[in-house]
Every structure is written in structure tokens, then in C-alpha cells.
Write a structure and sequence with these properties.
2 domains, four-stranded antiparallel sheet, 4 helices, 4 strands, binds zinc ion
């Protein structure tokens, strides 16, 4: 399965963020799925006359990417194509993201509970004095 969290795991954060920027500024000209291949042309961030062809391949749950840019592998263009594809699929929120969100909610709740305990403790400490 191809998912955002799986894709993100393959890239350095800097590359991921640059790719997201490319995607959000509409530099992915089109995206197509061809069996296990997801491919699309991406306009260069530095030269609008240049277009790179980026391919993402999913083999046995592993994600591989190739690109005609100088970086060639796991570049920002693949990030942009992957995100364009995911958006075109209109996928629901990624499982991992939902999980992280729920975890952060739980943490916030725990924080509140911990603070309440501290307050009770302080009140009782005052009373005992
Ligand atoms: Zn590239």
C-alpha cells in the first residue's frame, strides 16, 4: 500500500518539505498511475523552462523513486508527485496521522489530569499545615 507516512519515511525532512512546497505551488503538471508506477512531470523549482519526469514505484511494500533531475533518487520531485497522487486519490487522513493526533489529544488530557493532581496535593498540603 502506498501512503503518505510510508512515502515520508523515505525522504530526509528537508527534501520532503521542498517537495511539499513544489506540490503546493502547483509544479506537478500531471500525475498518472500505471500498475505499480506513479509518475508525473514536475516543473523545476529554479527554472520554469525545465521539467523533470519523476517516477515512484511500489515493490513489495517498498517505495522506490527515480527522476530525470540531477539528484535522480528520492528527490523533492518524487515527493511532489507522490503528494499530487495522494491528493488526486482524495484519500482520507493517513492512519498514522490520525494516530498521532489521537496520541497528542491523550497527552493533553494526561497533562490536565496531572495538573489537577498537583492542585489537590497543594490544597491538602496547605490544609495539613
Ligand atoms: Zn527529481
Amino acid at each position: 500500500m502506498f501512503s503518505k507516512s510510508k512515502l515520508k519515511d523515505k525522504f530526509a525532512l528537508v527534501t520532503w518539505n521542498r517537495g511539499l512546497h513544489l506540490f503546493r505551488s502547483h509544479n506537478v503538471l500531471s500525475v498518472a498511475k500505471d500498475g505499480d508506477l506513479i509518475r508525473g512531470p514536475v516543473r523545476s523549482a529554479t527554472n520554469a523552462q525545465v521539467t523533470y519526469l519523476s517516477v515512484i514505484e511500489v515493490i513489495d511494500d517498498e517505495i522506490f523513486t527515480r527522476c530525470t533531475c540531477p539528484v535522480a533518487r528520492y528527490c523533492k520531485h518524487a515527493v511532489a508527485v507522490g503528494n499530487e497522487f495522494l491528493e488526486s486519490q482524495d484519500t482520507a487522513a493517513d492512519d498514522k496521522e490520525v494516530e498521532q493526533w489521537l496520541t497528542s489529544l491523550k497527552k493533553a488530557e494526561n497533562g490536565v489530569a496531572a495538573r489537577k493532581k498537583v492542585i489537590v496535593y497543594l490544597l491538602e498540603y496547605k490544609k495539613s499545615k
